[in-house]
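Q: What structure does this chain adopt?
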Amino acid sequence: MGLPVLNFRIMLLLASILSQFATLALGAIGPVATVHIMNQNISPDGFSRSAVLAGATPSTLSLPGPVIIGNKGSTFLLNVVDALTDATMLRTTSIHWHGFFQAGSAWADGPAGVTQCPIAPGHSFLYKFQAKNQAGTFWYHSHHLSQYCDGLRGAMVVYDPADPHRSLYDVDNESTIITLADWYHVPAPSAGLVPTPDATLINGKGRYAGGPTAALAVISVTRNRRYRFRLVSISCDPHYVFSIDGHTMTIIEVDGINVQPLNVDSIEIFAGQRYSFVLNTNRPVANYWVRANPNVGTTGFVGGINSAILRYVGAPNADPVSTQTNTNPMLETNLHPLTNPAAPGLPTATGVDVDINLDILFDFASLKFKVNGVTFNEPSVPVLLQILTGTPPASLLPAGSVYALPLNKNIQISMAGGSTGSPHPIHLHGHAFSVVRSAGSSTYNYANPVQRDVVSIGGAGDNVTIRFRTDNAGPWIMHCHIDWHLVLGLSVVFAEDVPTVATSDPPTAWDQLCPIYDQLPPGT
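A:
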């Protein structure tokens, strides 16, 4: 075989391999991109309403928003352009890049009132951050009151050319991302304290009880391939039990961290969580129901609600007739990190430097949540700006909601379950954490507990306990990822390594956000 022919065959081989990856992500953008935030009427479940949407261009707005991709180590440059006009919803915005640690770039983390003031309509803001030593499945969403419930949410993927699980799958591209979303027919600002979802959307499509037979999402697969699916809960409230009729799933990644492969046939996924699983399409060519049963709203699958379709190439264009037979649910305690599995600190109950208990309750008098007796009320001056202007840690606002943490210490947080609105999915910014005690379990695992960034704290009798090391300076919010609960004050801020934060220097455009925002009428 001549050298040119060999080279050509190698090129063909490379091309076929690459075609299974990000090159198929034709609609994806990033790591350098403009993200347009605008209003548009959509009817993902057959009911038409105005929404807050993201798009790569003003004419390509979508729910979920465009997939944003990069590679391990990529620097993301995402210019967010606010062109919102619909006064029935928030017109200012702020975007959080969920799961990115933002080392050295806390100013780009996104939560309004913590690391920035919102972006005003008619203005833009450039977020710049690096995926330092991070790869896996992430997402982005508005972090300004309950705005993401109105549609501003989408998936992000950071590919790792040296993925240690690479030999386990053949296909990993934009078509293997599965998003789960709740959807509401009333705009968030007027929907009430904790509204009930009208529909479940899988990849942006769904049906609601009593509604029309709207098109369902179709996930197309070829028989006898191994697909890496990236399951992303972009939910505002419900958690889902996710399954695919007739198929098992091998979990290989949780919240951006590789795990030892775990075979299951259903996954309970909470708001903000992500799972990569490998699915082997070794079943007969047919259509199979994809199911995401929520804990609130209309449950079950009558009429195709809470459903999508897994369609093998060659199967008819028809609804599945498959049935659900799940017997091997995922248990969080069975998930173990692939590398560096030990929790920080010593393997004892008190083997940490700082031990904090957070007592969560709902105050029916004020209709607010309280954490250790204090409701988080978003400050008018973001916590980061307070630190930069010299406010001492003990005086940071909101009073009683900010916990100063020293550098390079092992932190343990325990949170009892069972409060109103349980189970609460708790998300920490700036870190992943080791879940040394999971919901539904009374045992403590310091040797190889799952590491993640959103954890359910369960129900009565649970005392979920997490650990992390303070190696990342910043004011990091920790909050319930049920967005309605966040608005009602279920949040604290960890001001980590305040001296280092005080010496940071956000870009000039960041400095201008608050003066511009403060000129706007309240509620914009």
